[in-house]
Amino acid sequence: MSVEPQPVIRRTRVEDIPALIELQRRVYPTIEPWSPDKLRQQVDMFPQGQLMAEMDGQPVGCASSLVVLWNEWAESHTWEEITSAGTFEHHNPDGRTLYGAEVFVAPEARGSGVGHLLYEGRRDICREFNLKRIIACGRLPGYHRHAAGMSAEFYARKVVWGDFFDPVLSFQLREGFSYCG
What we know:
This protein has 181 residues and is of the alpha+beta class. It folds into 2 domains: 8-137, 3-Layer(aba) Sandwich (Aminopeptidase); 139-174, no CATH class. It contains 6 helices and 5 strands. A 5-stranded mixed beta sheet has the order 1-2-3-4-5. Strand 4 (97-105), helix 4 and strand 5 (133-136) form a beta-alpha-beta unit. The N and C termini lie far apart (47 Å).
């Protein structure tokens, strides 16, 4: 009887960067991966906020986060602005909000609980630093199938209402997040 490998969540280390870039290429083949310099800056800025998931010693997921003063950003921000284009220069240790900049799971590890464990890791970060909330933006990978007939906002609402399934937003809703527009 073989035992299924269990995911392990740990902090990302600088030596993980090449493997994370390769994993990001597999997860998002049409999107340019983060550069080694940006990933190194993220680890340097807030090492506790960078998480990696492994199964059998192989990387299968990643979650990148920074702490912000939410009242400085509130609703009027872009991902590029709040993350300083991925460098996390706006990380503020005096903040009370964990901003989820990125999370991804290898296709072969989806459904194994890796995503849930990465979000549990984020919740642990909030407890460790006495943060009030997690705010996360996310891609809407299913939207392209409906883009000709509706806005992204209406598509997202239909996901919230249960009319559509979207791999990212549906997952975040199952994790207890609320859609804020």
